[in-house]
Description:
Blueprint (H helix, E strand, L loop, with lengths): L2 H28 L7 H10 L6 H8 L3 H13 L3 E5 L7 E5 L1 H25 L1 H15 L9
Antiparallel strand pairs: 1-2
Helix pairs in contact: 1-5, 2-3, 3-4, 5-6
Amino acid sequence: MQHQEAMALTATLLAAAGELTQRIHDGVVSRGFDDLRPAHGFAFTRLAPDGATATELAAHLGVTKQAAGQFVDELVRKGYVERRSHPDDARARLVVLTERGWACTRAAQEAAAEAVRPWADRLGEERLRQLAGDLAGLAHGGPIRPLW
């Protein structure tokens, strides 16, 4: 692939990610979770299903531990997460989703399904699954880092 083609591909992938992020966020807001930003959703992807420490969340979001701590404080105030004792480390606190956090996560899943429905209509379900598999193999499940 030539340099110009590589740049076009990266621009296309980033544009698709940006559009999906906005469509999912809009869907979450329309379902009543209007006190969140897309960055909160990126945090939720790390906290589900088993929670994470603030240090792990900081690494996932690409921010300092202090910034992650402030982010967690905000989500606690809004009722989306709570801090619990860590089952394996007495010095650490585990940040987990509350029922409100899980409800928001379910809303995001519904919104994500709506966001990719046009892709399935255009590509077909099988081809879209193949694309998802190809991208998952390339991305290696790495962290999802929002633009702040």
